[in-house]
Amino acid sequence: MFKVIFISLLVLLFSFSCSSIQTDSRSVIKNAIENKQYDEAYDEVEKKAESGDPIYQIVLGTLNYSGIGTAKNDRKALEWTLKGIKKHPLENSSRFKDGVVENMLGKIYLTENNGVPIDYKLAYQWNEKAARKGNAQGFHNLGYMYENGMHVKRNSQTALRNYLEAANLGVVESQARLSEKYRTGDGVTINKDEAFKWALKAANQGHSLSMNNVGVMYGNGHGVRKSLSKAIEWYKKSANAGNSLGQYSLGVSYVRGLGVTKDLDEAQYWLTKSSNQGQLLAKKDLGIVYLLKKDFYQASKYLSEAANKNNPEAQVMLATMYSNGWGYKKDADKAVYWAKKAKKSSLRQTRDTADKILKKHQGFFERLFN
């Protein structure tokens, strides 16, 4: 994303006359960029920057940040850019009007890289300057900082306003964040229609998590007419884009036969992909798939992983396996152990199943004090 932005900036800078940029150098750089000879362009910019030209120094900073013609290096990006803006302040510059450089500086201070320490105060100041020039990423970063209380007091409503500015300018991550805020009511009244609208915009720009969320909304009829077939369509897009939640949603759909024919092999395929990315819910459901296939060894493996990470449904399934001797010798102590843990679940069905196992394996007084 940034590489494309900075290449566009370079083309613009070296396509028009400027008293600070010599015609011969401008021509060499412009031709090198157009021919994608970025190493040559970098070398020419570096020569001019080292000779003291402030515009070239700023440009050299952007090249180091974006990794155009050289390895990405935030420290060198910061050093050259700050050196350049001492002589060529960005506020008065007719060459850097879109806030891209300010936003770049804000992002450098927001994330530690190449030895540049995080400085939320400077990150806020530079992103605010970028936003004042109408820079979309500047608005997004301000939203992120307000959402997480970085340098400023956490303020969900101010975060929302900045995300909205960025989202309307096409920033996909802001569109995704807006959808989540409208879905949960964080800083705004819950609005399922708005949640769906912004998730769809982000999904159509390739945001894989939003693809899954659009599927979930179609599946539940939230903000849009319920359609299981549309839900599956979006789950597949998300899953094929590599999103673990999309893979999980698609796998569960095959387990339950929601919008597709029940298919445990397909369920296993997608849940395995999701589980391999660390998705806890996928481990639990993959264990259930193996139970349905009567592969108790694999069922135990995945249910144990989920149960040990405090998933109550996995815990009650493990308790059931120990209670009934599925894949194990019957073991009342282990059945009781996992059933007690599962009783903390917020799901009534899980608690009820745990109670039945405890009643089966414990006496009256034991149950009374557990």
Sheet with the most strands?
Answer: none
Question: What structural class is derived from the secondary structure elements?
Answer: mainly alpha
Indicate the multimeric state. Answer: single chain
Query: Which residues sit in consecutive blocks of at least 5 with pLDDT less than 50?
Result: 15-23, 364-370
Average of the residue pLDDT scores: 90
Total helices: the number is 21
Rg:
28 Å
Task: Please indicate the percent range of residues in DSSP E strands (runs of 2 or more).
Answer: under 5%
Residue share in helices? over 70%
Structure summary, number of beta strands? 0
**Run of helices and strands:** HHHHHHHHHHHHHHHHHHHHH
Report on this structure.
It is a single chain. 70% of the residues lie in helices and 0% in strands. It is built from 21 helices and no strands. Residues 15-23 and 364-370 have low confidence and may be disordered. Helix 18 packs antiparallel against helix 19. It is mostly helical and 370 residues long.
